Structure prediction request, 749 residues.
Amino acid sequence: MKHALNFYNRIDPAVENRVENLLSQMTLEEKVGQLLLKNAFAPIDWGEVLRQQKLADERGEPFHISLELNPVILEHARAGRVSAVNSAEVRLNNRLQRTAVEESRLHIPLLVGHDVIHGFRTIFPIPLAESCTWNPELLERTAAAAAAEAATQGINWIFAPMIDISRDPRWGRVAEGAGEDPFLGMAVAQARVRGIQSAALPGGRRIAACPKHYVGYGAAEAGRDYNTVDISERTLRDVYLPPFKSAFDSGAGSTMSSFNEISGIPGTCNTFLLRTVLREEWGWPGVVVSDFNAIGELVQHGVAKDLREAARLSILAGVDIDMESGAYAGYLAELVSTGAVPVGRVDDAVRRVLRLKFNLGLFENPYQDETLADQVILKPEFRSLALESARQSMVLLRNKQNILPLPQDHKRIALIGPLANNRADLLGTWAITGQAADVETVLAGIQHYTEPNLIAYEQGCSLSGLESPDFSAAIAAANSADVVVLVIGEGAGMSGEAHSRVRLGLPGRQAELVQALAATGKPLIAVLMCGRPLVVPDLVKSVDALLVAWHAGIRAGQAVADLLFGAANPSGKLTVSWPAAEGQIPVYYAHKSTGRPAEGQGTTQYHEPFRSTYLDETNAPLFSFGEGLSYASFEYRDLEVQTPVVAAAGTLRVTVYLKNTSSRAGVEVVQLYVRDMIGTVTRPSKELKGFQRVGLEAGEERQVQFELQAAGLGFHGLDGKYVVEPGEFRIWVGPDSTRGLEGKFDLEG
Ligand code: BGC
Prediction:
């Protein structure tokens, strides 16, 4: 089901009139006020809050932070000195809106933003996991459900989707995106914007999406968060910008500038990106908000000597709203009065903010009905959706001798590992308003299929503790069982913002636990929970089956059990490559050939052929983009390129037959890749250009058809302009980025 959606970036003359009318009445201070996002809350002891939350999580009890508004924010709302806040509670949000709308001179309502990244209270799998569904329609529904829950709290602006392409699993924020590929990234960006901005949210509310972080943040050097980014304009345009363009084409009303610098110029004062590309080339009239304190951080970047200079650089570059740095609040009016910033720049920014507020209907409908939450939050449809999403997100990567699914008449199970009976970590990295008490554990999920006396549960070791392990109870449990299900991996706090890692193996003593259990000789099934690709070659060698469950949200435990016991059939496929060793990073399928490709003859220089390889590791990742198994098996045959010659403005048509050769129904994600054989600039050795989820009954065969606009096969050429070059293309249709039936076609100029 596609949702009716709102476009918050169309220029409507009636709205423009209202904007101009209001703008003409504003003082300079009120204009600056419209460009400020401020903290709304009275100071609170966050250390204590986290302690209380941990206790509640351990007891499986719901936890609620009791935040109070800072009286200063109410004064600012009254005086028109704030435009936006970050807040998630309807009672407080209505109070703030009432103050702004009823007590300020111009009655301008507030933007109420929040980070609703993978669910509000119904926590869905982390975005990286959800991208592994290759199911944009499902992602649209989960984003719409999250928006519906958020809307009950008076939120009208969501700081999502995070659409940064990343090819570096060291970067903790790889968890928040859709992986390494721009084509899939575009589909995901569109789906999530459509979901967040869907019409018919509770109480007639509307919500604007804020695709972020514009741009290149996922290319941080060495995967260290906030680190330097240096990418060519071509790569920026071919790889990192396309998801943003898709998000804007889908109606996104705002975007967030990124913390990082790009080739020497921080995203928050990058005139080329914020003005030339966004405004002049794309003509996008939405709101740009800085990331948290990012204007202030121009001082640490070393491009501004103080906050005044930081404010000047950012407003001139095109950042409309200052999130919490105080630079605009402190200096923008003065910069205009002294002529350092033309008032026209401030007016343009205010226009964009007011346009968004009008488009959101906030002037007509600023308050939310405080009783709606009970009917919407965690409602059964959302809980089912979370289960559907969790089942589709998980990726089966190994299944020796079809050990999975476990037979219904299975015998004793040893369930072992620090995540087997864990709730809080299954929520994942961005679950501010999620509750550990809502999460189903894997233990509880398995109990739906197995008598309690047939399950021997042992934690085995802690998640990341380095204390001397005592595995004796876990080994005894394994010895008493017929099969061992190990639930291991990363905690929620090991990925996400400011949580990069350089060693991507299993944390703590978990790798030793795996070895100790492998030594029992019992069949081992590993369920790996994580917020990123891990580097786990030894684990893969030691286990009979490997299911990557990610951090899959409130229904994770049930979803794992449904997959282990075959009530659901795995269909997820990786959207980011899993390195065989950290030293391969970045490793991604769409790499270039190089002049001495690994699989070629190389060039014999002196006495031996030299190739682009390592002495101590293959180039191939442990698991490649697109990989993932099913309990069904599929066969591809008879790839036919129906248009062996395609005009640059034409359509490529390709068909293939796909057969389910097994005795159970299943879903295959059919993937189409191309390679432009000769280009004026080098081309990736493969590029995803199409995919479809195809469900087949046991034994069923079907023809799968792809239609692609040849216009989508171009790149940014010698002169930096987008070009579709004539010539030969190879094409592959198959189950992942490493395999497939091969064909070719010619593109005509
Ligand atoms: C993050 C953003 C987030 C913002 C507001 C920042 O630290 O980078 O993704 O939206 O905080 O919470």
About this structure: The chain is about 30% helix and 20% strand. The chain has a mean pLDDT of 97. The pocket of beta-D-glucopyranose is lined by residues 86, 115, 159, 212, 291-292, 497 (CB under 6 Å).
